[in-house]
Specification:
The protein is built from 12 helices and 8 strands. By secondary structure, the protein is α/β, with parallel strands linked by helices. The structure holds zinc ion (ZN). Zinc ion binds next to loops.
Length: about 400
Amino acid sequence: MDWPQVPIESIPPEAFVPQSCPRRQCPTHAGPDAPAFGYIRVGSYRRKCDGRRVPRFRCRVCQRGFSLQTFAVSYYLKRPELLIPIANAIVACSAHRQTARSLGCAASTVSRQAARIGRHAITFLTRMLAALPGLDEAVVYDHFESFASSQYFPLGLGTAYLHDSRLLLSVDLAPHRRTGKMSPRQKARRDQLEKSYGKPSPRAYEQALSETLDRLMPKVPKNKNLRLVTDDHAQYATAVARHPHSERIEHRRYANPPRGPKGSPRSEEALARDRAMATADHAHQFLRHSLSHQRRETIAFARRHNSLAEQLITHGVWLNYVKARRENRPREGTRAMHAGLTDEPWSWERIFARRLQPFEVDLPPTWQRVYCRRLPFPSHLEVKPHALKNAF
Ligand SMILES: [Zn+2]
């Protein structure tokens, strides 16, 4: 994967050379016949938070100004030194307020920086998918169930993992109705909330898998089929059958067989299902262990579907690039190494080496909505979209 070794902020001001215009409206991004990018240096400024001198530039084509910071993940930040500790805290199961207490900052600072890390993770995962040499391994797909605000707003997070490398490839969202056992009072409350805020699509799981397949099919070599492993959720079969490339998808479905009381031996059927789905099962178990709001019986639950998606993708980037593929065998390397993307384990410093703008990586529509914080549920909460003019 083509990615800088040294963070942009560590490059001396006089040595930094911008490679392209960071403004998405600039004519230099208009395709193969676009004018070539050129720039002029226009002095520098001293950054208040860390005293660094930051060089300024002007694009020769669109005449708009920018600086070295425009290419850094720490753009606009007053406390850039918190970015890596916050990223570490997210994947170490700390809630925002706990993190704020240990870092000596406001909880809102943690929430804002966590959202920024999430946005970077989304563009980074898109770049990773583009860099993936080709999809030769089987893909294990399953939904991870969570909720935001209250259990009346559940969200299925459709995760796709490579079977052997265990690399997280994609996350898609399936907001659905509250299901399971409910008292008559709870049912009435659900109906009342649905009247006020709308009902999620009954085909959410199908749509989520369909979007994942759209993203993965271009990576499958032309003469090969995609081997997809899922459980027997009826909407998965529909998504595969309705997909334009359905004839190139070998779909293996494993039913979730009834299980006896805890500790009872598993049936042959259950063993086969567990073997096939182990990659997703282990990853989901690890998610419950690593993200504060995904624990059972917690008061640290997420407030928005958007932040659930951001943090799951942040966790996915860390899982793929930083964490050892097998906890007790760090020398075997990371999931990204196993999948042929990198040749050494990375750190958060390396992941934050440069900022990726959404227009650079061609974000898929669902991920664009997550990036801009425009997911519709729970719609009763005031969700401030990420809509700063020069921030994307
Ligand atoms: Zn320009």
